[in-house]
Structures are given as structure tokens and as C-alpha cells.
Amino acid sequence: MAIEKIQAIRGMSDMLPEDAPLWHFFEKEASSLAKLYGYQHIRTPIVEQTRLFKRGIGEVTDIVEKEMYSFVDSLNGDELSLRPENTASVVRACIEHNLLYEGPKRLWYMGPMFRHERPQRGRYRQFHQFGMEAMGFKGPDTDAEQLLMLNRLWKRLGIAPVRLELNCLGQLEDRKAYREVLIQYFEAHKDILDEDASRRLYSNPLRILDTKNPDMQDLVNNAPKLYDSLGEESKQFLADLEAILKAEGIDYVVNPRLVRGLDYYNLTVFEWVTDKLGAQGTICGGGRYDPLIGMLGGRDAPACGFAMGIERVLELMKECGVKPESRECDVYVVWDKALYLNALSAAERLRDADIATIIHSGSMKFGNQMKRADASGALYALVIGADEAAAGKVGLKALRENLEGYGEQKTLTIDEAVSLLGQHV
Ligand code: ATP
Ligand code: MG
């Protein structure tokens, strides 16, 4: 009887070895830039109490309304959720451990998030985010700092330019005023509203501006602008942020329709968007969330941050032809029958010197071993043959055209081999 094969869950992907170099390249650049800007690493659990996200993201949001993996722990009845994003958890951790006690904190995170969405290109049920949260900073210098860092990251990853869209949501009072104006406007056009929009008309009318429904584009394009409801301070905040971006030569467009849906956002909101990925073109989104820490029970403190969809960024890197170097090892050891222990001790010498080394495993003809060496991507083959071993030496063969002495085999002592390899790998 054939044994049934078990498959991964829809929308949740394996990271396969062929994509590992791209992931590693991203992770290295992102974490080193975070450090470059003085941000510290934080990791929070993947599972939290459901009410953290209900309160920290908002009940009337796509995420909480229909995308959360929520369940009751059958062992104790706790209501839990897989985290759909990381900001609420980071704020929870800050409050729980009193991290802001000594002053403001710059934090970054990276890891898997979970949302029950319809899987498609750029949209998965398990996906990964890299994000930063600056807590206790009033801005706009901090908002600008994160945008500068992101602009630098796109360059380092080889995907620049990415379009920066910016908006100012004002303070809660500004938005309350705007909300009324918007409700009146949409009420006058009720016949054009789709189901989602009708449902949100009174609960979250700003979110209607975000609609992707083509039949509603004219309606939202002609809607009253949030900017006109902003108080002087909010307008000044946006102007100050724009001045920093201009001084640093960061291109951006102000998009008055950008609202990013979450109740707790205020002042700055932004998205980085590419046209190269089809419908899922937003690779990063963020903004200011001054009310959130207080809403989750902490002492009020202003904060701003962003989250980036790593899968979308990697897709864009592929689209841009970014190909980080990848090889299984630097050196592949091929060896004659009966000389395994010589091969092993040579390999361990190389590893002492931090040279990534694979010893051919299993018996095989010499020629086939060399084929494996070539396929591994190794730069060199280290040859442990009977003649070399008898002379207390090893053979070293450069496998790549761009290496000195390509194609010929040198006979060296292991010390000479280590020192030559040390200069080339
Ligand atoms: P979208 O409008 O595409 O649904 P969102 O507003 O729900 O995005 P955020 O909650 O702001 O997204 O998350 C920040 C970033 O995380 C997004 O800009 C995107 O790059 C990425 N992201 C969000 N949801 C997914 C998903 N289901 N699969 C892959 N990446 C995602
Ligand atoms: Mg979404």
C-alpha cells in the first residue's frame, strides 16, 4: 500500500536551499543597517493573547476582522493568536519589561507573521517581516531616520529606486473632524459604495479611501482631502519631515489617499511601492503611532516604525537580477581509496582556518568526484592522491576560470595550501 505524502499548509512555504543565499543576503544587509543606525534587536513570541491584537491593531481592521489565526488552547482555554504583525507584541514587551524606563529605545525585529489571506503572488499565510520601532521619539527626525535607512537598504539590496509615498494623518482630533466630512460625502454617494465600503461607512470611513475596487476610484479620488482638515501643528510636522527628506535628496510623493487603515496611526504614514511586482507592489509600510503605547496600558510615549514584507523584497531582488554568490563550500576534497583519514585531517585543517570544506562522501571514481566538486560550486578541489600522500603533500586545483592557475594542479604541503587558500576564499 502506498504511503500518503503529507504536504505543507497552503500559503505557507518552505525556504529551499536555492533561495537561501538571497535570504541570507537580505538578512545580513537588513540587520547590519539596523545596527548602523543604532537599533537593537528584539524577538517576541509567535503566539500572543488574542486580545493584544484586538486592542493593538483595532477590531475594525482587515487583519482582526478576517485574517487572524485565532484558536482556543484546548489544554487551558486561553484565547490565542499567531501574530499577524509585530508592532503590538513589541509594544507589549516594552511595557512588560519597562524598557522605556531609562529613556527612548530603538528596536528592530525579523521573523514570521501569519494572516489567513487568499494565497497569491506576494501574499502568503505565513510570511516574514523585517521592521523597526523607535519608541519614545517625537519626530520628525526619527521618522526621517527610518526613511533614510530604508532608502539606503534598497540601494544595498540592488532594488533602488523604490517609490516613497507619504501622507500625514494628523492627530486624532483632526481625523475626527475629517471623519465627519468624509461620512457626509460618502452618504451622498451611497449607491456607488461596495459591500466593504458600506460596512465601513460608520466604523472606519477612512479605510474606504484605500479601496482597490475600480468602480469606486472616481468616488475616492474626488473625496475631500484629509490635508484640509489638518491642524497647523500637523501641517508643520509634515513640512518639517519633507524638509529633511529634501535636504538628504530622498525622492517622495505625497499621496493624500494613503491612510493605512489602523486606528492608532497619527501624523506620518508611508509606503514604499514598486511597479515591478503587479498587484502586491507595496514592499514596506509604516508611520507614527503615538497613541498605541498608552492604549496598551503603558505610559504615553510617541513612537514610529515600519514593517517590510521580506518575500516581496526578495521577489523584487530576483526581478532586478540580484544574484548573491552561492556555493556549497569553498573547497571540495577528493580522495583516493584508503586515504580517507588523510582527507579528513586535511579538511579539518582547512576548517581550522575558516575555509568551508566538503569531503567527498562515499566511494566513487576520481573523475566523478571531480564532477561533484565542480557542481558544488567550490572554488578549489583539494586532491588527496596516493602519490601526493606518499610525498607528504596535497594537490590543489583551481576550479574557476577567474582564479590564478585555473585548470592546473599544484602540489603543495598542507600548510602552503592553507595559506594560498586563505588569500583566495
Ligand atoms: P496589503 O495592503 O498588501 O494587504 P497591509 O497593509 O496588510 O498590506 P502591513 O500590515 O502594513 O500590510 O504589512 C507591512 C508589509 O508586510 C506589507 O507592505 C507587505 O509588504 C507585507 N505583507 C503584508 N501582508 C502580507 C502577506 N499576506 N504576504 C506577504 N507579505 C505581506
Ligand atoms: Mg493586508
From TrEMBL:
It catalyses: tRNA(His) + L-histidine + ATP = L-histidyl-tRNA(His) + AMP + diphosphate + H(+). Residues 1-317 form the Aminoacyl-transfer RNA synthetases class-II family profile domain. The keyword Protein biosynthesis applies. Keywords: Aminoacyl-tRNA synthetase, ATP-binding, Cytoplasm, Ligase, Nucleotide-binding, Protein biosynthesis. The keyword Electron transport does not apply. GO terms for cellular component: cytoplasm. Its main location: cytoplasm. Its EC number is 6.1.1.21. CDD domains: HisRS-like_core, HisRS_anticodon. GO terms for biological process: histidyl-tRNA aminoacylation. It is found in: Cytoplasm. GO terms for molecular function: ATP binding; histidine-tRNA ligase activity. L-histidine binds at E85, N86, T87, R115, Q129, E133, R260, Y264, Y265. NCBIfam families: hisS. HAMAP family: His_tRNA_synth. PANTHER family: HISTIDINE--TRNA LIGASE, MITOCHONDRIAL-RELATED, HISTIDYL-TRNA SYNTHETASE. Belongs to the class-II aminoacyl-tRNA synthetase family. Homodimer. This is Histidine--tRNA ligase. It comes from Parasutterella excrementihominis YIT 11859.
